[in-house]
Amino acid sequence: MKADISAFLGGYRPGHSLAHRMPVWSKYLLVLVVGVTPFFVKQWWFSSGCLIMAVGIDLVVARMPARTALSIGVPLWIANVLILAYHCFFTTWQRGVIYVAGLLACLYIARLVTCTTDPGALMDAIVAMVGPLRPLGAKPEKFALTLALMWTTIPYLIGSVGQVREAARARGLRHSSWRFLIPMFVGAVGHALEMGEALKARGLGDDE
């Protein structure tokens, strides 16, 4: 079963849950408490508790479907299993649980922000956060715009890779080939040109 790429990266999902009505700052606070503190406390039971709490918040408070809340993709599951196995054999299983549970807790609680917060409100919160750095020459609007572009480009590129692979399999090409790079490169260039034209039309493409 293919993982939902937009859900993995935290695509916004409109809704009327309690999480959708929460202010952005409170979601950031939950990310700090549930997703970051496990790496400082460094206790396996604390990391496990934060993981359970993160999943519970996604399922109950944000009312996400179980597949959206729990799906992280096969590669990341494999990476977590390898991390846990490494620590079980070479250090301690407790340390493995600390890192794996902490990583998953951070990922799952981050979805509370990105899946239940309108992108516009999310960018406004970032602008407000970077605002105090204006005297130092920071440009909060451009910083937020950069994050927004990254947030939209990464899913596009990942989706492009998946589409090329599926098209290749449909044509009987089972092994990796340099020919796969051509359509991906063309798609990436086309996406970049479209984004550039959109920015230029809004007066954001020229240096000040």
Automatic annotation (TrEMBL):
Q: Does the keyword Transmembrane helix apply?
A: yes
Q: Name the UniProt key words of this record, in alphabetical order.
A: Membrane, Transmembrane, Transmembrane helix
Per the record, the domain of life is Bacteria
Q: How does the UniProt record describe the way this protein sits in the membrane?
A: Multi-pass membrane protein
Per UniProt, subcellular location reads as: Membrane
Transmembrane ranges? Answer: 28-57, 69-89, 96-114, 143-164
Looking up InterPro entries in the UniProt record yields: ABC/ECF_trnsptr_transmembrane
Show the GO cellular component annotation of the record. Answer: plasma membrane
Q: What is the name of this protein?
A: Energy-coupling factor transporter transmembrane protein EcfT
